[in-house]
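Quick illustration for those who missed Monday's session on complexes.
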Amino acid sequence: MKIGIIGAGAWGTALAQVCAESGPVLIWAHEERTVADINDHRENRTFLPGIKLSPEIAATTDLAALNSCDAALLVTPAQHAAKTLQALGPWQRPLILCCKGIEAGTKRLMSEVAEEVQPDAPLCVLSGPTFADEVAKGLPAAVTFSCADGELANRLVRRIAGSAFRPYHSDDILGAEIGGAVKNVLAIACGVADGLGLGKNARAALISRGFAEMVRFGTAKGAREETLAGLSGLGDLVLTCSSEASRNMSFGKALGEGDSAAALLADRVTVAEGVHTAPVLVSLARDLGVEMPISEAVLALVEGRLAPRDAMKALLQRPLTSEAN
Ligand SMILES: NC(=O)c1ccc[n+]([C@@H]2O[C@H](COP(=O)([O-])OP(=O)(O)OC[C@H]3O[C@@H](n4cnc5c(N)ncnc54)[C@H](O)[C@@H]3O)[C@@H](O)[C@H]2O)c1
Ligand SMILES: O=P(O)(O)OC[C@H](O)CO
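Prediction with SN-glycerol-3-phosphate bound:
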């Protein structure tokens, strides 16, 4: 089975490396330079420097070339997903969504974008605690692989699994994608706490109460709690909130240390999805009547309406309540 990968950032390239363990891979890149780097130098010098790429990987800027593939993984930033899928043209083969975000403006989850733009494609979601560079180096990792069709999931999981990369099958598409989108926003809050020097207890409190927000929001959208408690939800939340290797966590840390969001976003080449997801997540939560105070605080910080210390103080001064809330 030939695998197509749409998006040659760090994660698309790492997934290409995993999939190349058991067959050919064609990766589409937005930039000519990235295609030349991969084809001529066997390295993605812009987005995943220092990793020697498998000879099984070929790169192209021509989306139509992906028609030679049996399945495609979508790994663009969430805000570029719709127009890239549109440019792909009609696609009837499996489409595996790997981006972690919600579309601004339309408030669509990635599965909702794909259902509208590619209505004939069987959809799957691959999401979990995975820093791209570790996966590309062959270090062990496990992810949730959600697909409503169990037989298709089995075939795809066997093709995508690597010697140290373990996809676990689930049929809860919404649960898998919502965990990955929400954790990016919460990781910014953990970074802010770190930047302010608030300590490890504060981080654990933010992770636990952030997980409560993820579950309230996810279940209101139709996700299953057991999925949110798995690799793609809690697993990814813990990873992303605990390491400066996370772009979202390190973005929050810089905010906490006094940098402005605008300065941090200027000329940024890599994506910190939580910055784009925060406004749309908060808006969706308000529509649903779901309380998400940590996500609200992140939005206020990103928009420059609150200073980091005031945002943390506001969270601490909320009325005392039951842990079940
Ligand atoms: N990096 C990781 O460790 C990791 C792990 C799991 C999931 N993800 C998710 O994968 C998705 C992609 O992130 P990444 O880390 O691979 O990206 P990245 O930050 O490494 O690179 C940015 C990407 O955006 C692309 N891009 C820029 N402008 C574009 C446009 N106009 N149209 C289409 N693409 C454009 C670039 O080509 C590049 O692929 C995100 O949703 C991210 O949350 C990332
Ligand atoms: O660097 P981040 O914050 O985008 O996180 C990368 C992955 O999503 C971690 O699972």
